[in-house]
Amino acid sequence: MHRSPVRRLAGALHRRPGLRLTALLSAPMAWLVLAYLGSLGVLLLSAFWTTNDFTSQVEYVWNTDNFANILSDPVYRTVALRTLGIAVGVTVVDGALALPMAFYMARVARPRSRRLLLVAVTAPLWAGYLVKAYAWWVMLSHGGVLDWAVGTPGFGVPAVVITLSYLWLPYMVLPLYAAFAQLPDSVLDASADLGARPWRTFRSVVLPLVKPALIAGSIFTFSLSLGDYLTVQIVGGTTQMLGNVIASDVTLNLPMAAAVSCVPVLLIVGYLLAVRRTGAWENL
Predict the structure, then answer these.
(1) Nearest to 79 by CA among 251, 256, 253, 221
(2) If both were cysteines, with which of 24, 179, 191, 199 could 210 make a disulfide (CB 3.0 to 4.6 Å apart)?
(3) CB 231 within 8 A of CB 160
(4) Where in this chain does the record put each ABC transmembrane type-1 domain (predicted)?
(5) C-alpha distances in angstroms, 281 versus 64, 103, 115, 143?
(6) Which domains does the chain have, with CATH numbers?
């Protein structure tokens, strides 16, 4: 008795788990290639076009003038370095805050308190991005908490770093919490038996073990900060980041906006390649 093609296909998928997995992932992978990688390809291609100075129309003429302008114009270099500095600053601040927070949550807090702390850490993710950014604008503006405490409001690069650090802190805490929770007690006991003090144990034993999780969290904070442009508009004052330059150029000079967009993409790709051997990707 001949089986239908559908039955034969179902039998083949059942006998070969690898084929079944490929069939399940084929549709989302095709969407990823077309929607994400395809858009990146179009972005890179349009960066080599130009805009007519009189009509503001895009001219599909192959040239590298946009990249030459980015490298030669000090304004673009300043904005790029400022954006990189803000992203690094946010990553450092979040790492410094998340390490003790995650360690306490995973190794010190009682189970009931641990659950409450996890809810407290993830609760800001339930609120809207703009709500949180404008809440910091209220605290940093005239009559806010900072004005009340030190007598002056604070906008600019420090305000951007503070606000972005708050926004992305959960993305640093959660990987570190998972890493600390998986630390075997025998490792910590062995370090104590060998006479290591708590700080020495943390620096020489614990920190190397959670380093992949720390780098995984830094991938989130670094990349999200590089691409942000709303926070700097709200609390940055006159400060500009690459995202603001891209947003302002999209309607006026699309090829230049595409060329500027390549800068954060290259920075993120370079960072991912630099940390690929640390095991951070497995903690994402």
Answers:
(1) 256
(2) 179
(3) yes
(4) 80-275
(5) 34, 21, 26, 44
(6) 5-39 (no CATH), 72-283 (1.10.3720.10)
